[in-house]
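User: Can you model how beta-D-glucopyranose sits in this protein?
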Amino acid sequence: MVPPSSSQFLLPRSSVRQVRAAQARGIARLFLYLFVCVCFSTACLSQALPRSEADGISDPALEARVNAILQKMTLEEKIGQLVQYSAGQPTGPGTGRSDYEDMIAKGQIGSLFNVIEPHQINMYQRIAMEKSRLHIPILFGLDVIHGFKTEFPIPLGLASTWDPAIVEKASRVAAMEAAADGIRWTFSPMVDIARDARWGRMAEGAGEDPYLGSAMAAAYVRGYQGARLDAPGSIASCAKHFVGYGAAEAGRDYNTTEISEHTLREFYLPPFHAAVEAGTASLMSAFNTLNGTPSSANPFTLRQVLRREWGFQGLVVSDWNAVGELIPHGLAIDGATAARKAFLAGVDMDMVSSLYHDHLQALVSSRQIPAAAVDEAVRHVLRVKLALGLFEHPFVDEAAAPKALYHPESIALSQTAAERSFVLLKNGSAGDGQPLLPLAKGTQNFALIGPLAEDSSYPDGARPGSGPRTTLLGALVQRAGQEHVTRYKGTGILEGSDQDLADAVAGARKSDIVILALGESPDMSGEAASRAHLGLPGRQQELLEAVVRTGKPVILILFSGRPLTVPWAFEHVPAVVAAWLPGMSGGPALVRTLFGDVNPSGKLVVSWPRSVGQEPLYYNAMNTGRPAETTDLTHAPGNIQDRYVSRYIDEQNSPQFPFGYGLSYTTFSYGPTKVSSDHLNATELNRDLGGNRHAVLSAEAQVSNTGSRAANEIVQLYVRIQGASTEQPVRALKGFQTVSLAPGESKEVKFDLPAESFAVWNDRNQFAAEPSKLTIWIAPDSAHGTPAQAQIVP
Ligand code: BGC
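Assistant: Here's the modeled complex, given as structure tokens:
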């Protein structure tokens, strides 16, 4: 044992610990300070080096202007650029401040959000441009998440199209409408990986897969930002929430996350990286604690990964009051410390907490924050403002703003997107041996039952627009005729009366066919909408069972921001469609789908659980040392072999429907997967990982339309890597494409795979290809396909 030093005897043990801790903290702080100083001088030296051509913010020509403005700024004005408030309908608890006009005139605010009226935007902007000393324009932001006014399906639905092109077009429409309104910055896309349907924000993202999530992330950024940020109709995007927010323990929003570096690198970081590569102007730092350090004070993710490894030059804004929340997190015990920790970790702009406004000046004066670090953060803000052309065009044309909204092409796109987002989960027969959908010609009298067919909270996502909207009821009446449609409420979403239920059942009996519109209201998913139960809310299950008991053919349309556990429905209802929250054109899109004008092609981007106890549930899981692949999991274990495997004793391991699953009105068959070579060379692959995206292997399979309707099929390619230095998932998506097939038509579907398809985050903490065995499937979903084998040789 090491003898204690004499000084330690002078203090009680707890004080010794405190002193040591304080010393350690002091030393750590000094190191961090020096480290940040060094980084900032390096950053300043290297700032002329653009990261990539993709983002308008890395343009070296901007830097001269950035520097010229910086030189004129006082410290107070610099800090002002790092301060943001919500000046409209709040989306979180506020600071109580409202003296924004005065603050803008003093140069104390860099950005406002939640201001949506063009005249208000101009009012604030006029103060910045005319009254503030340096006339630096305000950057106005908003959560434009699935459309601004023209409303698209929620992002989970948009992702279910597996069509980055449609996502790009939808975001372009959103950008055009928002920009015309004066909003030049959206807090979108949310690119968090979501593996747990309890987490309400699953609705806002692209699901559980990093490859698909990356494709969608890039598509959103391209759509919002266009070819140039300063072009008309372009807005800055903000990839959020950096990082790991979707892994909230128990699916409870804002909860702690523990994510190993391996899992971060392979699953959670890639969509952010894709957004950065696509040129996103900004990122938002998340609420959650990540491995013990809140994401909004996390130098590993914000500085090491984002700035140093990825070379990001844009702006990092905190999430709503995330700087202030460092106090309840326990990372800071006062506002000054919270501001210092968030700032030094790499959060440039403080959303709403006001702590940068209150403390940064003193922190710089006391040298707890280097002045160069403030300059660097201000650079990030100015770059975005300059790239957007805000200095040249700070005001919005109030008369022109409404003309950008609800263009017929935009509404048509919202309908196409909705049609493509629906996932046909089941299409059985109602007794005649034929699939119930599409509806047979001459179908007569409909009973349209359920709280989501026309409710005033018709599923339009979080921000109801005011534009034209046709509900499911309206669209069905238009199609089938008023006299053939009878509407019954059945029950509300949460509350229901015996009388409404009985009326609906009686109505079902009188009809030829029942359409049941059940599920969640929009406010049951999204932020702060975690659920511990994933079944139908309120009395909807009771209604469902009573209606099905009438013996009438039933089509169930599920509206939700997540998969719902309704195993009874999947057993007893012939046809089930996941409609998500389909946006303003959801009604007509659904009716066209039910009547077969369009053939459903959406596929799941999240594994659909059988029961909530399976969550988090995701297809790209590790195999475990005791996989239950060959065990019959439909029964409780009857013997030792069946028991001591990774399983539940009361539920199957498999999802109700796997990731990638979705039916069509036609059927497809898949031939075996063939690969262009049975071996790859690790050294050559690693040489290519530096950025060469040429094909190192091609895989091909024949896909045939074996039914009688033309259809689009989303063909997926999965890889499994065994024998590398780290364990890899049982399957990982590495490609997808949509093919159109006429009835009876077959196509060879080919995927060209770059080296990165075979790289793993290895035991030396690097992405590399390693000698290993490869299994490659071309498949309709993550649970099927006939694989090919290959190897990576040393
Ligand atoms: C959410 C963010 C959103 C921000 C601004 C926060 O509560 O987590 O996603 O962008 O509010 O509205």
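A couple of observations from the model: The radius of gyration is 28 Å. The mean pLDDT is 92.
User: Helpful, thanks.
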